[in-house]
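in:
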């Protein structure tokens, strides 16, 4: 799992988000959340760009969902988008399609 740096307006996870990469994913999201919360003033909106995610399982979906909930709990609107059409069925079957913005990937199927 390679990660792109995040900015105050955008967080871009990359690579596989699966149980095998959970420790790295958690570290990346914890760092990204810390960066978001250290910005003064807090960003009103943060983009979660999922276009570089190549693999996703239930564990990866849960990590991303917790990240989104933490942003929301701190008053930051998280806007996930860009999930690849190939990952749409996975997120839909796992119940995360709406939360992770998978509906914008479904149009390309």
């Amino acid at each position: 799992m390679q990660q792109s740096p995040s900015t105050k307006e955008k967080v871009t996870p990359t690579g596989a988000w699966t149980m095998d990469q959970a420790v790295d994913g958690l570290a990346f999201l914890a760092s990204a959340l810390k960066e978001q919360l250290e910005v003064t003033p807090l960003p009103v909106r943060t983009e979660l760009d999922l276009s570089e995610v190549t693999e996703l399982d239930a564990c990866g979906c849960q990590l991303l969902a917790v990240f989104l909930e933490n942003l929301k709990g701190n008053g930051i609107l998280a806007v996930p988008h860009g999930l690849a059409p190939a990952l749409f069925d996975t997120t839909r079957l796992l119940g995360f399609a709406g939360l992770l913005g998978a509906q914008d990937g479904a149009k390309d199927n």
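note: The radius of gyration is 13 Å.
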